[in-house]
Specification:
single chain; about 170 residues; alpha/beta; Rossmann fold; four-stranded mixed β-sheet; 5 helices; about 20% strand; GART_AS; Formyl_transf_N_sf; phosphoribosylglycinamide formyltransferase activity; EC 2.1.2.2
Length: about 170
């Protein structure tokens, strides 16, 4: 992503999964794409992340906005992009970092759930919170129905939070 006077422009969509829908979305809009599967790197996470970093730098990326990237990043990559890598997570952090957030909120009897945009740090979903959106938990909710409402909130929140973040980089 490049930050500019209009806050930001999506200039690359990169995924470790060649079948990721975001790659097709980007290609349809003429946005550069890179599919870089991690499997060929075996257990060498650093080598895969070095290739990711090389692709990001080759495309002059200024800010990385993670969405649906379901791998824990090494301290090396997090450090390379420190203060310039954001993530969106489907819970009201610090509640429910990691996986199965909607089930956990329902099991806890929470009255509300939501999503959080945060800076990426070495810990899982522990970075500084930039913004949150809340949605009510409704009677009869299942993890799937709650996830659908939270996803709608994510789609509204992330572009707004990215715009404010990039505007603050000037």
């Amino acid at each position: 992503m490049e930050c500019s006077d209009t806050a930001y422009e999506v200039s690359l969509v990169l995924s470790n999964r060649p079948e990721a829908p975001g790659l097709a979305w980007a290609a349809e809009r003429g946005i550069a794409t890179v599919a870089l599967p991690h499997a060929p790197y075996g257990k060498n996470r650093e080598a895969h992340e070095a290739a990711l970093d090389e692709a990001l730098r080759a495309h002059d990326i200024e800010v990385v906005a993670l969405a649906g990237y379901m791998r824990v990043l090494t301290p090396w990559l997090v450090g390379r992009w420190s203060g310039r890598m954001l993530n969106i997570h489907p819970s009201l952090l610090p509640k429910y970092p990691g996986l199965d957030t909607h089930r956990r909120a329902l099991d806890a009897g929470d009255a509300e759930a939501g999503c959080t945009v945060h800076l990426v740090s070495e810990g899982v979903d522990e970075g500084p919170i930039l913004d949150q959106a809340r949605v009510p938990v409704l009677g009869g909710d299942t993890p799937e129905t709650l996830a659908a409402r939270v996803l709608e909130a994510e789609h509204r929140l992330y572009p707004q939070a990215l715009g404010r973040f990039c505007a603050g980089l000037d």
